[in-house]
Amino acid sequence: MAMIRKGKVNRHEKVTQVLLSGKPVTPDEIRSVFVGTDQEKVLYRLSTNIYNIRKDGGIIKVIKDGRKVKAYQLVNFDKFDKNGRFIQTKAQTQSTKKAKEQPVVETVQSEQVKEAA
Fold first, then answer.
1. Which of 74, 90, 91 is CA-nearest to residue 13?
2. Any idea which architecture 2-90 has in CATH?
3. Are 72 and 19 spatial neighbours (Cβ–Cβ below 8 Å)?
4. Does the global pTM surpass 0.70?
5. Potential cystine with 52: which of 12, 22, 30, 67 (Cβ 3.0-4.6 Å)?
6. What CA–CA distance (Å, rounded) separates 95 from 39?
């Protein structure tokens, strides 16, 4: 089952929308999308936004010329919806993981008891 977060679109999700083509996008192209909006200062924190995209599950390829960033490319763009939100499968809960692990531990312990006897 796929889960997509609902609610307000975050700034890094707006940057993700610009990168959804899967092609390299220059910082100037990103800037042009946000000119005249309340998010115009997005390039001040562009590296932070790229970090947040990576934290969500995005794979970002940074294309550089020496130390200068020429472009950013979202490699796994197919894992994002049109709003720039990462689509993920529902994670296993801790109780489910423990329930699956517990019989294995008991089996190992019972085998050790048999060997000792």
1. 74
2. Orthogonal Bundle (1.10)
3. yes
4. no
5. 12
6. 41
